[in-house]
Specification:
The complex is a heterodimer of chains A (111) and B (121). In chain A, strands 1, 3, 4, 7, 8 and 9 form a six-stranded mixed sheet that branches. With 111 residues, chain A is mainly beta. By secondary structure, chain B is mainly β. Chain B is globular and about 40 Å long. The N and C termini of chain B lie far apart (40 Å). Classes of the chains: A mainly beta (111), B mainly beta (121). Chains A and B meet through β3, β7 and β8 of A and β5 and β10 of B.
Chain lengths: 111, 121
């Protein structure tokens, strides 16, 4: 069980908005550690989508945005496209574990 | 082009050892922390280990402490993961990932394609 909790799956029609939550605690997100988000398609290398809570690396479409509040963070995908069908992971640091931690992942399906 | 290329995976018996390598190119290797992240079959991503740019500081998830050792050779732009006393639960695709900065929570912006480790008799 990860210390960062994500919904196992979400879905949406093309063009819709999907928001993935990442719930942590006072020993990770709540302490102020940054949250990062990754997109992972099976058989490929994971891709950094958001770093430092709300920053997009160059080349990542602005349809992807991140936010953080209290002990939680969120990844929003607007204008959902077929190519967005993938697994999404949040990642942060936990001071109790002294470990980098990933959320359990959310599988996004485009209907 | 910034690139990471892992090698060294394979089939090993329980209790055996493997050494994974990750060759980096296209960036100043010694300036960045490096990570190993794994994905077991049907599971999510799990951070395994990290090493700072100088190689002095290393970090491990509890399940591999005492069995795995991360190291780096900055003269050859390569990071290693020595895995001993392997268990069935270590079976996974192992990814090498570059940290965006010198720390261990800056976000991992470059990933290799992964190398598969299978622990089975």
């Amino acid at each position: 069980q990860s210390v960062l909790t994500q919904p196992p799956s979400m879905s949406g029609a093309p063009g819709q908005r999907v928001t993935i939550s990442c719930t942590g605690s006072s020993s990770n997100i709540g302490t102020g550690y940054d949250v990062h988000w990754y997109q992972h398609l099976p058989g490929t290398a994971p891709k950094l989508l958001i770093y430092g809570n709300n920053n997009r690396p160059s080349g990542v479409p602005d349809r992807f945005s991140g936010s953080k509040s209290g002990t939680s963070a969120s990844l929003a995908i607007t204008g959902l496209q077929a190519e967005d069908e993938a697994d999404y992971y949040c990642q942060s640091y936990d001071s109790s574990l002294s470990d980098v931690v990933f959320g359990g992942g959310t599988k996004v399906t485009v209907l | 082009e910034v690139q990471l290329l892992e090698s060294g995976g394979g089939l090993v018996q329980p209790g055996g050892s493997l050494r994974l390598s990750c060759a980096a190119s296209g960036f100043t290797f010694s300036n960045y922390a490096m990570n190993w992240v794994r994905q077991a079959p049907g599971k999510g991503l799990e951070w395994v280990s990290a090493i700072r740019g100088s190689g002095v500081s290393t970090y491990y998830v509890d399940s591999v402490k005492g069995r795995f050792t991360i190291s780096r050779d900055n003269s050859h732009n390569t990071v290693y993961l020595q895995m001993n006393s392997l268990r069935a639960e270590d079976t996974a695709v192992y990814y090498c990932a570059k940290d965006r900065g010198g720390g261990v929570n800056d976000g991992m912006d470059v990933w290799g394609q992964g190398t598969t480790v299978t622990v089975s008799s």
